[in-house]
Amino acid sequence: MSQDMNLTLKVWRQPGPNAEGKLETYKVVANEHMSFLEMLDVLNESLIAEKKDPISFEHDCREGICGTCSLVIDGRAHGPQRGTAVCQLHMRHYKDGDTIVVEPFRAKAFPVIKDLSVDRSAFDRIIQAGGFISVSTGQAVDGNAIPVEREVASQAFDAAACIGCGACVAACPNGSAMLFTSAKVAHLGLLPQGKVEGKNRVKSMVAQMDKEGFGFCSNIRACEIECPKEISTENIARMNRYYTHAMINSE
Amino acid sequence: MALTGLFLILFLLIHLIGNLQLLANDGGKSFNIYTEFMSTNPLIQTISKGNFFFIALHTMQGLLLAFKNKKAKGSKYAIRASNNTSWASKNMALLGTLLLAFILMHLWHFWFVFKFGSNYDVVTINGTEMIDAYTKVSVVLTQPVWLISYIIGLIVLAYHLNHGFGSAFQTLGLRHKKYTPIINFVGKAYSILIPLGFAIIPLYLYFTK
Amino acid sequence: MRLNNKVPPGPLKNKWTNYKSSVSLVAPNNKRRLDIIVVGTGLAGASAAASLGELGYNVQCFTFHDSPRRAHSIAAQGGINAAKNYQNDGDSVYRLFYDTIKGGDYRSREANVYRLAEVSADIIDQCVAQGVPFAREYGGLLENRSFGGVQVSRTFYARGQTGQQLLIGAYQALSRQISTGQVRMYNRHEMLDVVLVDGKARGIIARNLLTGSLERFAAHCVVIATGGYGNVFYLSTNAMGCNVSAAWRTVKKGALMANPCFTQIHPTCIPVSGEYQSKLTLMSESLRNDGRVWVPKKVEDAEAIRNGKKTGLDIPEEDRDYYLERIYPAFGNLVPRDVASRAAKVVCDEGRGVAPTGLAVYLDFKDSTMRYGKARANVLGLNGTGDVEKLGKEVISEKYGNLFQMYEKISGENPYQFPMKIYPAVHYTMGGLWVDYNLETNIPGLFALGEANFSDHGANRLGASALMQGLADGYFVIPYTIGQFLSAEIRTPSFTTDLREFDDAEDAVRERIEILKGIHGNKSVETFHRELGNIMWEYCGMSRTAEGLTKGKELIRNLRKDFYKDVFVPGRIDEYNPELEKALRVADFLEMGELMMEDALDRNESCGGHFREEYKTPEGEAMRNDEAYTYVSAWEWNENGAHKLHKEYLTFENVELKTRSYK
User: Fold this and answer.
1) The predicted structure's pLDDT at residue C385
2) Residues A155 and A224 in one domain
3) With contacts defined as CB-CB under 8 Å, which chain B residues touch A175?
4) Looking at CA atoms only, how far is residue A89 from chain B in angstroms?
5) Residue B158: inside a domain, yes or no?
6) For the ranges A158-162, B86-90, B177-181, C380-384, which has the lowest average pLDDT?
7) Number of structural domains found in chain A
8) Of A153, B70, B96, C319, which sees the most CB atoms within 10 A?
9) How far is the C-alpha of C166 from the C-alpha of C134, rounded, in Å?
């Protein structure tokens, strides 16, 4: 049977992008079957009942695939459970009397919008810089005309599983977006369809990434540990390889 | 970072091999010959200049990286959780700065003095007059304060290498399912054995004095 | 109003080909002068915006999310159907068409469904070219699997994340058009009204969700691709943000809502665990291939389980009721979604549910574990000496590992040890805006794509065909059919947003927001939404009665009154305010729910996702009434409650209407 647990939450409150923020303390009663976000729902409902401003946090699918949720819990992006987005973190991992600190994803390129919500549009712009294959609707050849080695397809999938949540940037002490960018570069670069414009892709995407103000990679690998889809830093090595190759071979 | 780092890693190996002559039980003869060769051979001299250049470049790059990354991160988290990343990987800038201080101390002891100072002896070996580097080294390294400083410097080096070695390969994109575990193993071994090798010398000199 | 479905003449299989060669075209130089608004960036919206941009139209695209990639198409697990016949198992365009019509219980339009089946193969080619990493065989060719309700293997998939990969493909195509400036993307903008000029859709009013300001956008036509309305039930497998508002605003301006009562309830979801529950999670249908569904025979055993005194493991074999196998011996655990869902409800209503809430049945993998274990033991040559159960668990883990892991994360119970608990949940809405063959609503220049329209799934949708429809509409249908409308508009200069119609629409939206904000009541938006969900589930859920629906309709009207008296919306209007966004959406759900009840009440038959207690066979099976109800119900909303029904009668010239039987 489920037991109520009394929790103390320290939540980052920041009224707007340019306002000062600080940690505020709240008490909430949760039970072990709730998801972490449902616990925040309960807290918000109680704030609304007191006619106070609820805590702003982003979420949508609540099944770990849309990449909208973005919390840092006790210093860990998406919380303590590996390979899990916050929306799939459940309260049974906590116990009565715990104090939990909840903060937004932090990086210069992810400015805070309000409380725990941040602006991750830089990721869209990185994809727009070249994270696609230039094929218009109707131009495709038959699906089976391009055989792809099963292992290669599987590797491409591993990279393509990225949900674009930004946990890699949040976890990185350098605020680097290398894991995100390299996942897309690797996904498309591994497949024969995507190799054609591979050189341009890696150059433009890396240039855009730098322009957005993300940091450089120093191979700390916090990103792959915190990634809810467990995307490997192998992709970063691959992107570095592609990049070097593109720079040497460019005219 | 990676290329300069790899050069410096290679340099360490060469440096250690040379230094091991200090362990030769010949009153410093072979070490002094080695030193003389190193400081007069034009090729070595060129490489040595290159080495200074790479140290400077590596430092500059490192500082720039640390500076830009600090800016990119913006504000810090209230709680810094350990998430199984290595301590060294997150503190390369700190380790590098300590290492730079160590190198400067090292240069003061054994380069500046020989090059611009006069506080050393001269010996004649096989008819050639040369600096008695051996004696100088033994005198400095057997003083407890310097001995401890050197050991600390080498521990810093071990941590710096521990991350730097594998990291250089990763940055260069040299990653492979089969070979990367080998590289990582070699890297870990290297980061322990090289500083250990260096550390044995002063300890040996100290205890055999 | 007479509904003209504009289905082209000629034999079924030539309709689309002839249409494509005879439809009026817009020359490239004219495309540059034509503006299109696309609302929504799921599979349908993103693929439409990208394809229309590629053609040279000026596209403005809108999403309320922070990025186009977050749309809920991303959560589809299973796969996408296509009549490729790569497996040489006799698949064809006609078979896919037939399966879809039959699966939809003969309540969809033949010509639209046939076109869907025809373009299905092109979708796969397009997605492969975009870099979608579909599953491959060892020879490097595309792999297929079979899915519920069909006899061929025509489902293409990318592990359990097909929707994600397809959406990312469309998102990338869209991103490419954004980078060229052909599509202007507006993230965090929510459409709050459509603007009609001289009866044609010429623009929208959107709220910038970051600043709260109302913004006007004008175009020659408007495409709505904003998904389904499953969240009217509060608890569903939809994402938290899914809503009916964009579509509903067009209904308020005269568009017709078709078949709103057709909702799909998926049988295998993780059950509700408490009051605070915010959404439900689907467990892939594929689990029913190996799991056996059961509840205890005796109510007292079920009670003991509910009280925690017993677990499923304590119930001996002879006291278990494998009710699907008992009632439907031919199909057993693999009966279609609607049948399986209803049966679960029946046994739980009898008091035999197994979760503390009383609303769950077991999905048990014990038998298949042992079966697989024995088979593997034989393969390994162990001849009965090995640990069969352990080997079996390994096989199960290889097949369903990620699903079992997800189940454990959410429920906290180890499904390898205890049987899974599942219960049906709202999953998809077949109903939507009424559209003709061109995917154009009854408002000229207003188009609806994907789950937002009603066109292809009739009364029940088959697995792996939602993705197919979204992409068909966006990549291969709308680029042609929009030309039918726009070719007559080439002399219409671009609209400005200074028109009086835009003033009026913006004022109306502002007033609506101020009313909600000005109520200052005592109940949260969430409270009302949850209450609405309870009413919908109770009276318009898995089984419906005339009495219940009449009562439900009344309850919703009262709830709506209460909402406008007692809701509390915190924060300001002119700032980022998720509670205000929610309030606007719930306000629309409160009207949509009423229309669903109305439609369910009108349809005096049981078909697909719509089951009326009064219309069933003596054995309790759904009883269709083809004589009287072979029509699409297209509803015109009336503010006074006298909603007007327009009927589009369906004619079937290529298939014979049969009763579905799974016994």
Assistant:
1) 66
2) yes
3) 69, 72-74
4) 17
5) yes
6) C380-384
7) 2
8) A153
9) 9
Q: Among A114, A136, A166, where does a domain finish?
A: A114
Distance of alpha carbon C657 from alpha carbon C654, whole angstroms: 10
C-beta separation of C440 from C126 below 8 A: no
- Ordered by where they begin, the domains of chain C are 276-424 (3.90.700.10), 500-649 (1.20.58.100)
Instruction: Note whether residue B111 is domain-resident.
Output: yes
Mention every residue, 6+ apart, whose C-beta is less than 8 A from residue C524: A45, A48, A49, C567, C568, C579
pLDDT digits (tens, 9 = 90+) for C139-167: 999 999 877 667 789 999 998 899 999 99
Do B and C make contact via 3 or more CB pairs under 8 A? The reply is no
**Closest listed residue to residue A216, CA positions, set B72, B94, B160:** B72
User: By CA distance, what is C572's nearest residue in A?
Assistant: A53
Residues 441-480 of C with CB under 8 A from A: 475-476, 479
Interface test with B, best of A216, A234, A242 (most B CBs within 10 A): A216
Examine the domain organization and report whether A137 and A100 are in the same domain: no
Task: Tell whether A127 and A209 lie within a shared domain.
Answer: yes
**Residues spanned by the domain of A13:** 4-114
C337 among known catalytic residues? yes
Contact A242 B173 (CB under 8 A): yes
B6 is a domain residue: yes
**Along chain A (251 residues), what's the average pLDDT of each consecutive run of 10 residues?**
85 96 97 95 97 96 96 96 95 96 97 97 98 96 94 95 97 97 98 96 98 96 96 97 93 73
Q: Is A146 in the same domain as A110?
A: no
Closest residue of A to C163, CA-based?
Answer: A65
A-proximal residues of C, 304-323, CB under 8 Å: 308
Average pLDDT, chain C: 95
How far does the CA of residue B195 sit from the closest CA of chain A (Å)?
22
pTM for this prediction: 0.96
- Which three-class secondary structure state does DSSP give residue A247? helix
Contact C115, C477 (CB under 8 A): yes
Q: Which of C203, C183, C225, C178 is nearest to C64 (CA)?
A: C225
- Measured between CA atoms, the residue of chain A closest to residue B176 is A234
- Joined tokens for residue C395: 């096989």
Say yes or no: A137 and A107 in one domain.
Answer: no
Q: Choosing among C64, C84, C130, C525, which should be mutated to test the A contact, i.e. which has the most A CBs within 10 A?
A: C130
**Alpha carbon distance B22, C273 (integer Å):** 73
Asked whether residue B97 is assigned to any structural domain, the reply reads yes
Cβ–Cβ below 8 Å for C142 and A38: no
Q: Which of A74, A94, A114 is the last residue of a domain?
A: A114
- Mean pLDDT value across residues B112-120: 78
Mean pLDDT over C369-381 rounds to: 88
Q: How many domains does chain B have?
A: 1
Nearest Cα residue in chain B from A111: B74
Which domain CATH number covers A88? 3.10.20.30
**Residue B125 backbone dihedrals phi, psi, to 5 degrees:** -125, 130
Rounded to a whole number, what is the distance in Å from the CA of C536 to chain A's nearest CA?
Answer: 21
* Yes or no, beta carbons of A240 and B173 under 8 Å apart: yes
Chain-chain contact of B175 with A237 (C-beta, under 8 angstroms): yes
Residues from chain A contacting residue C129 (CB–CB below 8 Å): 133, 135, 139-141, 146, 193
Note whether B68 contacts A215, CB cutoff 8 Å. yes
Domain around B48: 2-71+89-208
Residues A73 and A126 in one domain: no
Do A24 and A63 sit in the same domain of this protein?
yes
CATH code for position A220: 1.10.1060.10
What's the ipTM?
Answer: 0.97
Pairing type for strands A99-104 and A4-13 reads parallel
Q: Which of B99, B108, B115, B106 is nearest to B8 (CA)?
A: B99
Catalytic residue of the set C216, C249, C337, C624: C337
Nearest to B89 among A176, A213, A219 (CB): A219
Mark whether A141 and A229 lie in a shared domain.
yes
